[in-house]
């Protein structure tokens, strides 16, 4: 099988994910079918074992495959839209793509926050407080991600700009995916709650510099989980 070509800027792992996607489609593999072994995939596509392992780790993180003893990687339907998501997987969870999504969020949320900072009422801030409490009370990873997104979405919505809010909503799936990865690795709801609370207090005190710094630091925090996954997969 001929490896699929990708843009020059794509990583070896991204290319490997694309090759596996193409192989699954070409072989018409279905849920429950086993993928070739790491060694076989490496030989098939001329990739190192570490690259193959990292690509499989990415696919596993998104519920596209599961790793079973003696069987190896098996296609799974653990998540409802696994196949659709698989087609854009490598754009969603690489460190470079993480920075792109979070960069988008910084632009939108910082701009929205500066408006909120100047016009927020006590009721608006109370809504943010209530949304943040739900983050701390979350039980499952999916619930924590949904509540985390709801907090940030509310921040943007409170700016009162429907175009800005619609733009943010358009990236909902990508943002939620990144949130699930971070919370799946380490469900630190209290730390997220504390970071959100500091952001709320900066808004309450109308401290623009503190707000910008705290938001930027908070959005960068999840990168460690993406990079950790990559390093673990390559061990």
Explain the overall architecture.
Keywords: DNA-binding, Transcription, Transcription regulation. It holds the Pfam family FCD. The chain is mostly helical and 235 residues long. The chain folds into 2 domains: 12-81, Winged helix-like DNA-binding domain superfamily/Winged helix DNA-binding domain (Arc Repressor Mutant, subunit A, Orthogonal Bundle), CATH 1.10.10; 93-230, Up-down Bundle (Four Helix Bundle (Hemerythrin (Met), subunit A)), CATH 1.20.120. 70% of the residues lie in helices and 3% in strands. The protein is built from 13 helices and 2 strands; from the N terminus they run H-H-H-E-E-H-H-H-H-H-H-H-H-H-H. The two termini are 27 Å apart.
Radius of gyration: 20 Å
What would the average pLDDT be, to the nearest integer? Answer: 81
Biggest β-sheet: strands ordered side by side in the sheet: 1-2
Q: Helical amount among residues, as a percent range?
A: 55-70%
The CATH level-2 architecture of the largest domain is identified as Up-down Bundle
Unreliable residue stretches: 5-9, 78-84, 229-235
The major beta sheet can be summarized as: 2 strands, antiparallel
CATH superfamily of the largest domain: GntR ligand-binding domain-like
Order of helices and strands: HHHEEHHHHHHHHHH
Organism: Allorhizobium taibaishanense
Pfam family, one: FCD
Keywords: DNA-binding, Transcription, Transcription regulation
Domain HTH gntR-type: 10-78
């Amino acid at each position: 099988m001929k490896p699929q070509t990708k843009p020059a800027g794509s990583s070896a792992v991204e290319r490997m994910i694309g090759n596996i996607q193409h192989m699954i489609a070409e072989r018409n593999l279905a849920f429950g079918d086993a993928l070739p072994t790491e060694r076989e995939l490496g030989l098939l596509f001329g990739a190192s074992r570490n690259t193959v392992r990292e690509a499989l780790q990415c696919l596993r993180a998104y519920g596209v495959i599961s790793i079973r003893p003696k069987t190896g990687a098996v296609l799974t339907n653990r998540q409802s839209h696994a196949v659709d998501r698989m087609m854009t997987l490598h754009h969603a969870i690489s460190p470079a793509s993480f920075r792109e999504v979070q960069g988008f969020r910084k632009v939108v949320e910082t701009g929205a926050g500066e408006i909120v900072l100047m016009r927020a009422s006590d009721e608006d801030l109370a809504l943010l407080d209530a949304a943040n409490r739900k983050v701390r009370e979350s039980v499952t990873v999916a619930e924590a991600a949904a509540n985390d997104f709801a907090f940030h979405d509310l921040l943007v919505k409170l700016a009162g700009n429907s175009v800005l809010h619609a733009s943010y909503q358009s990236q909902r799936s990508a943002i939620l995916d990144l949130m699930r990865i971070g919370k799946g690795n380490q469900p630190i709801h209290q730390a997220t709650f504390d970071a959100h609370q500091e952001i709320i207090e900066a808004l309450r005190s109308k401290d623009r510099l503190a707000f910008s710094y705290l938001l930027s630091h908070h959005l960068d925090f999840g990168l460690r989980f993406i990079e950790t996954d990559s390093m673990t997969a390559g061990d």
